[in-house]
Amino acid sequence: MDNRQERPVRGILLRVLSGALFTGMLVCIKAVSDEVPVGQSVFYRSLFALVPIVVFLVLRREFPGGLATRRPLGHALRSGLGAAAMFASFAAVALLPVAETTLLAQLTPVFMAVGGVVLLGERFSFYRAGALGLALAGVAVLVLPGLEASRAHGQLAGYALGGLSALLTAGALLTVRRISRTETAASIAFYFILVAALAGLATLPLGWASLTQTAFALLVLSGLFGGAAHIAMTLALRYAEASRLAPYEYIALVWPVLADWLLFGLPVSSGFILALPLLLGGVGLATLEGRRAKRLLRQ
C-alpha cells in the first residue's frame, strides 16, 4: 500500500482518536463542574494543554520559530472567539449530558457555511440552505422534549450555551481561514491556548475553589486530553480531506454516549436520537459545500 492509500486511513484513525480525546476532556470538566468555577476549569485546561502542544511543536522543529506572526490582531480575534467558545462549552457541559453538548458542537460547520455567506460574500447555495434547515430541525427536536422536563430552565440554558459555543467556534475558524494564508498552524494553536489560559486566570478575583487532589488530577487530564485532541485533529485534516472524515462524526459521538451511560448514569434522550441524523445531515451538506467551493477554486 503506497502513501497515498495510507494517508486517508491514517487521517480517519486520527479523527476517531481525536473524538475519544475530546470526550475525555469534557468528561473531566463535567466531573468537576459542581465544585470548580468555569473560569478556573478554562485556565487549567488551557495551561496543561500547552504541554502536549509544545512537545509536538518541538518535535516538528516549529518551536519557537513557528510562533512568529505578521498578523497579531488576527490572532487576537481568533483567540478571543476561541476562548469565549471554551467558556460557553464548559458552562454547557455542566448543565447537559456530554453527548448533547458534543452534538451541539456539530453546529459549527453549519454556522461556518452560513458565515461564509454573511461575512465573506459567498453564494447562498442549495447545500448551505439544506444544511441550515436540517440543523434548525435538529436543534428543535433536541430542545422541545426538554421543555417538559422538571429541569427545563437549566437544560434550556445549556442548549443556549452549547449553541453559542458552536457559533463562536465557527467565527474563530472563519478567522483561521483568513489568517492561515500567512500564519503557521503552530502560532494559531499556541496563541489561542495562551489567550484562553489568561482569560481563565482573569476570573481569579471572582473566586476559585480549593482543589482536592482528585479535582486537580481531572483538570490536568482535561488539558492533556484537549491538547492531544487538537494535535490528532490537525494531523487528521492533513492526511484526509474534511469531506472524507465527515462520516466518522457518527463514531465520534459514540464516545460521549458511552461516557454518559457508564460514568454519569445518564441514558440517551429521545431528543438526542431524533436530532442526531438531522444535525449530522446538516454537517454533511455543509461539508459538501466546502468541497464544491474548493473544486471551483481549482478550476
Automatic annotation (TrEMBL):
This is DMT family transporter. It is a multi-pass membrane protein. It is found in: Membrane. Keywords: Membrane, Transmembrane, Transmembrane helix. Pfam families: EamA. Residues 10-143 form the EamA domain. It comes from Vreelandella gomseomensis. InterPro entries: EamA_dom (IPR000620), EmrE-like (IPR037185). The chain crosses the membrane at residues 12-32, 38-59, 80-97, 103-121, 126-144, 156-176, 188-209, 215-236, 248-264, 270-288. The lineage of its organism: Bacteria, Pseudomonadati, Pseudomonadota, Gammaproteobacteria, Oceanospirillales. The keyword Cell wall biogenesis/degradation does not apply.
